[in-house]
């Protein structure tokens, strides 16, 4: 708010008077809840409000909202920002307007996400039983006849292949008379490795798909200001549409009337015949009545004609 310094230099006096006036306005609004709370029934009553006072209080409210936002944003720090100093408003009227803190609602944003459902731990983490693998035992020759097979969810590494090769070489040196072990196919390990790799990749894709489906973007409902703005726009569009329809109907009527007046009205033969049947005295009377009706205003001519017809009806025998 700007103040002009007069010749006597009373700028400080003007500022103090303005602050006192603002405090008086705040005290009046604080005592009457319907002046600032939109949920009250009398909030929309304009008869109990002054335009100038309402405008000034709106300015005070707007500044309080800005100061309050700075205070809230400076709170709740953690980590490296835990030692950050909380913002302290330097405005003298901040504490006087604290009763507005409950009525201030910050607008929601569309960047908030919430978890739709929790991911089962069994789909993400492998249990200990799946990680265990059974290796062949060197105590009996029957266990060495089976290939070196691990769990389906486990990928064979190069160390496993080397271990299998060392076992086979040891078995060949200890028992050279076993022809069945010498016929073990070399491609069995590569085939097993490719098979396990494909299954593991498919299970990983399934877990990734499940994870992506668990998160859903949450768009909040529009606030009261957005709803009111949309209602006003819809009402304006509806009013404009109704007016355009009325103008179209009026334009059609005016066009029809202009066409009707531009065309001459044909005189029927029945009217001419009925007029010709009157006597000369009646024709003179009708002309005198018509001459007199011309001096009567147009909106009273019909009343005069009705009165004349009523007199004529009274004398009909």
Automatic annotation (TrEMBL):
Any one biological process term the GO annotation gives: regulation of transcription by RNA polymerase II
Recorded superkingdom: Eukaryota
GO (cellular component) term, any one: nucleus
Alphabetical list of SMART domains matching this protein: MADF (SM00595)
InterPro entries for this protein: TF_Adf1 (IPR039353)
Protein name: MADF domain-containing protein
Organism: Cardiocondyla obscurior
């Amino acid at each position: 708010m700007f103040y002009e310094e007069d010749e006597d230099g009373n700028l400080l006096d003007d500022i103090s008077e303005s602050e006192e006036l603002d405090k008086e306005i705040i005290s009046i609004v604080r005592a009457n809840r319907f002046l600032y709370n939109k949920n009250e029934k009398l909030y929309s009553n304009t008869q109990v409000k002054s335009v100038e006072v309402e405008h000034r209080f709106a300015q005070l409210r707007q500044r309080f909202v800005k100061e309050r936002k700075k205070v809230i944003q400076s709170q709740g720090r953690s980590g490296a920002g835990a030692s950050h100093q909380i913002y302290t408003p330097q405005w003298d009227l901040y504490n006087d307007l604290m009763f507005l803190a409950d009525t201030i609602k910050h607008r929601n944003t569309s960047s908030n996400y919430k978890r739709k459902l929790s991911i089962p731990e069994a789909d993400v983490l492998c249990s200990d039983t799946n990680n265990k693998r059974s290796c062949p035992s060197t105590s009996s020759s029957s266990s060495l006849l089976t290939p070196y097979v691990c769990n389906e969810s486990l990928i064979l590494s190069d160390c496993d292949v080397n271990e299998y090769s060392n076992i086979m070489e040891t078995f060949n040196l200890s028992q050279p008379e076993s022809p069945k072990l010498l016929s073990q196919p070399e491609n069995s390990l590569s085939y097993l490795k490719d098979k396990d790799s494909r299954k593991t990749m498919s299970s990983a894709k399934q877990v990734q798909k499940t994870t992506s489906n668990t998160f859903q973007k949450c768009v909040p409902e529009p606030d009261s200001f957005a709803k009111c703005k949309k209602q006003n726009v819809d009402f304006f569009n509806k009013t404009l549409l109704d007016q355009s329809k009325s103008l179209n109907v009026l334009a059609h009527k005016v066009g029809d009337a202009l066409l009707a007046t531009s065309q001459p009205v044909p005189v029927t033969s029945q009217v001419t015949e009925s007029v010709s049947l009157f006597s000369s005295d009646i024709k003179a009377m009708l002309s005198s009545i018509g001459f007199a009706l011309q001096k009567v205003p147009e909106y009273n001519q019909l009343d005069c004609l009705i009165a004349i017809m009523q007199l004529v009806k009274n004398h009909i025998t």
